Amino acid sequence: xxxxxxxxxxxxxxxxxxxxxxxxxxxxxxxxxxxxxxxxxxxxxxxxxxxxxxxxxxxxxxxxxxxxxxxxxxxxxxxxxxxxxxxxxxxxxxxxxxxxxxxxxxxxxxxxxxxxxxxxxxxxxxxxxxxxxxxxxxxxxxxxxxxxxxxxxxxxxxxxxxxxxxxxxxxxxxxxxxxxxxxxxxxxxxxxxxxxxxxxxxxxxxxxxxxxxxxxxxxxxxxxxxxxxxxxxxxxxxxxxxxxxxxxxxxxxxxxxxxxxxxxxxxxxxxxxxxxxxxxxxxxxxxxxxxxxxxxxxxxxxxxxxxxxxxxxxxxxxxxxxxxxxxxxxxxxxxxxxxxxxxxxxxxxxxxxxxxxxxxxxxxxxxxxxxxxxxxxxxxxxxxxxxxxxxx
Amino acid sequence: xxxxxxxxxxxxxxxxxxxxxxxxxxxxxxxxxxxxxxxxxxxxxxxxxxxxxxxxxxxxxxxxxxxxxxxxxxxxxxxxxxxxxxxxxxxxxxxxxxxxxxxxxxxxx
Lengths: 392, 109
What we know:
The structure holds two protein chains of two kinds. Chain A has one helix and 31 strands. By secondary structure, chain A is mainly β. Chain A is globular, with a radius of gyration of 20 Å. In chain A, the strands form eight sheets. In chain A, strands 3-2-1-31 form a four-stranded antiparallel beta sheet. A four-stranded antiparallel beta sheet of chain A has the order 4-5-6-7, with no helix packed on it. In chain B, helix 4 (about 70-75) packs across helix 5 (about 95-105). Chain B is globular. Chain B is an all-alpha fold. Chain B has helices at about 1-25, 30-45, 60-65, 70-75, 95-105. Chain B contains five helices and no strands. The chains are: A mainly beta, B mainly alpha. At the A-B interface, loops of A face helix 2 of B.
């Protein structure tokens, strides 16, 4: 059925020149993309019908890729590892604009008003800002830390008020860029936040930015509602004195839904999640997991967190009850689970299984498998509803 | 004469190293699986195209200055204080050496 629909779509594509048949009116709120990490392509998916509706190629090196969406949820902005920034039209299946803006990049964000797209670059280290409509470059913010050297930048997210916050990996700093006047960004720099901050994210209310540290214990925390801005070290005793395991894949600080007063984050070098109280920022517990977590993605209602793991334990997913901090379900999804994404109100979880060349779709309450979509070496899954969320 | 015995020593040494080189290709049980590991899992940090990411580029020209032994032991023992982990618990010495050789030759498929 899926193959037939795809064949029809491709036939229409040949006739119409587009990779997605735009012969009928349709909304985009239930669409999404799946990255094909080895092919430089994305599969466009319809999450209501659980099918692929098209494929867009020519997007560069997507071996690490992420995406944000335009306010109207029609366009995805893809951040590719090779520095490529592509604006793709989910309805026509065309690349609407594309620029190779750096040598090596890791992620990006879109401003709250939808007018600016920022990219976080490794090479040259820094953040560049582009017009969301045309991808014309508007600002360039080299990430030269207090050590005088350019740092890779990570953990770039948007904040209310046309601002962005991100982390300098090598220099161990957190910068906040205010783009009120886009051509002249005003940058606030927090130095000495910790060694090798490898990722950062903001809570769904846009208030608390957390940057995980690879080079030492603890997490850097910035309460964005407090002036002057400052980074505090939280979880300082976390893991002290214990031998860390080799880390074969960096944990990611992503997928934070409204989790009430508690957030689960991956522990580095341990088979654990750490539970953080979002009022006190104290550790309130740990969850022993199957392997070293890579993604801990909260279901949108915040009740459960789904967790996948680093090499070599990549075939398993743990489901954690956020109330009891227990693993309530553990299952083998397939070889190399790379990413998980919930539908906007959380009724389904979509899981990319890289070495099975497919995305598997689960009922998020019963864990029953409801469908699958073929995709070559799938990695990131991104749904358009992210357009409505701060920090995503 | 002294040069004759030296010549024989040199010949034996050459023969041994040629034999060792030939044997290496057979030491790895599943080269395809190993190549997939390098692309997909090493590639998480070093890039699927090996052009770098959080980790350094691993293209043949970038590795030219490193010898095979150094690379093998970096793979096995990691680089402490950086995100490069030791793979010793997951890879044999022969496998690490195969990876080092393959990367240095730019021969990863």
